[in-house]
Design brief:
This protein has 416 residues and is mainly α. The chain folds into 2 domains: 5-194, Hypothetical protein af1432 (Orthogonal Bundle); 238-416. Helices cover 72% and strands 0% of the residues. The protein is built from 16 helices and no strands. It has helices at 5-19, 30-47, 51-63, 76-88, 96-108, 118-127, 136-150, 159-169, 175-208, 214-225, 228-269, 281-302, 313-317, 334-346, 348-399, 402-411. The longest helix is centred in the last third of the chain and has 52 residues, at 348-399. It is elongated.
């Protein structure tokens, strides 16, 4: 195998982009290809791969987007593999096994990623490296512009929402990229969500001041109900409630864990000392009672409440059941649930009503959770204060009785 194969491959692919220029390739062009090659080499160097594996990734990185020059988006990986095979078969010392490995790497870049080995994982991460960098804002605009020029109009609908969905479902394959890029990707997702929310607010503001005839206004109101703005609002509200519920559960778990540890420490250390130091009994009881009460309240805050889990056909036809909550259908048969969901999805009014009802129910549960958690924190805080005060008062009173000094000193050497 010639040592110059790396240079010959880069020259060949560079020549392809020059010989068959595609003015609509705003993103999937030679510049992107070179960046993918650089990033593939960066990741591969971290894992110190063999020469054969390094060559496989290198060639695949150069050819992975060449198919865009000759075919559409859906088939570009297959065309890139075809171009790679045609060229590599001309090279001396290249066997079919190596060509198949390169083809596998190219095919693995098709979204959603399903890499089968470390080489494919490296190329997938190199191709989506920009998801976790600051240049994503620029590359996202490039991809959108390219799709506009190439006529992929169906992919442009709800662009920001679909991009958020893509980033949230995407997972970096290599540990190197997970550590290096996951935080940056999360920042890009938050940027997109902020952008999407601003668009929703702008659309709502425009609709409020759009004046027309009565029929036109009614038609616009009905259309607005199904608009992206409303959908985004409902999605963000549900997401926010979900995160608040997670926070409430974490707070309750912290209270349970901390107070359980405190009770364990008290029982193991102070109980044995009470016969010798009886003045510690009342402060200990106060402390144990406050900790136990806190645990009970925290458990009540997180204890789930399950409903009957069944619904009737009349409930669905009368739009009385929220099918988005598992507690309303978990005891129903699959056939019943499929029919009910089909009915729900055919009726937009029922669908949005179910979503709103689900958000309201989550809000009610959140209100109960946070009320109990606040009570638990208050009990813990007040109990802690009273316990500490009780310990010091008991110690001072005990020291005030001379008859107890000898006993206290002999028993433990300290009042606490």
């Amino acid at each position: 195998m010639s040592d110059n194969i790396y240079k010959r491959v880069s020259n060949h692919v560079t020549h392809l982009f020059g010989e068959y220029p595609h003015p609509n390739l705003i993103f999937h062009n030679l510049t992107h290809t070179k960046k993918v090659v650089e990033r593939a080499q960066e990741i591969a160097a971290h894992y110190q791969l063999s020469e054969k594996d390094t060559l496989t990734i290198y060639v695949a990185a150069w050819f992975h987007d060449t198919g865009h020059l000759f075919t559409d988006l859906e088939k570009h990986e297959e065309k890139g593999i075809e171009l790679m095979r045609e060229y590599m078969l001309k090279e001396d010392g290249i066997n079919e096994e190596l060509i198949n490995s390169i083809a596998g790497c190219i095919m693995a870049t098709h979204l959603p990623h399903q890499p089968k080995n470390s080489m494919e994982e490296i190329l997938c991460d190199a191709d989506t490296y920009h998801f976790g960098t600051k240049e994503f804002k620029h590359t996202n605009k490039q991809v959108k512009k390219e799709f506009e020029l190439r006529g992929y109009n169906s992919l442009l609908n709800d662009w920001t929402f679909n991009t958020i969905d893509l980033l949230e479902k995407h997972i970096f394959c290599t540990s190197y990229c997970k550590i290096l890029l996951d935080v940056g990707k999360r920042k890009n997702i938050e940027w997109l969500k902020g952008k999407d929310q601003k668009k929703m607010v702008d659309n709502t503001h425009h609709d409020m001041f759009d004046i027309g005839s009565g029929e036109e206004r009614n038609a616009k109101e009905k259309s607005n109900l199904l608009s992206r703005g409303v959908q985004t609002m409902l999605r963000l509200t549900s997401s926010n409630h979900f995160h608040l519920s997670e926070m409430a559960d974490r707070k309750a778990n912290i209270l349970i864990s901390v107070n359980s540890i405190i009770i364990g420490v008290i029982l193991s250390l102070l109980i044995d000392k009470l016969p010798d130091d009886p003045y510690l009994t009342i402060p200990t009881i106060i402390f144990l009672a406050s900790c136990l009460t806190t645990i009970i309240i925290a458990i009540l805050a997180t204890r789930p409440k399950i409903t009957e889990g069944i619904f009737s056909k009349e409930d669905i036809l009368n739009k009385k059941t929220n099918l988005l909550f598992f507690g309303n259908f978990y005891r129903s048969s699959l056939e019943e649930y499929q029919w009910a969901m089909a009915t729900l999805m055919k009726d937009n009014e029922y669908l949005y009503s179910a979503i709103v009802k689900d958000i309201h129910q989550i809000g009610v549960v959140l209100g109960r959770k946070y009320k109990l958690i606040r009570l638990a924190y208050n009990v813990f805080m007040v109990g802690l204060i009273f316990s500490v005060v009780a310990f010091f008062v008991a110690a001072l009173i005990n020291y005030g009785h001379p008859a107890n000094v000898t006993t206290i000193t002999n028993a433990s050497g300290t009042p606490l």
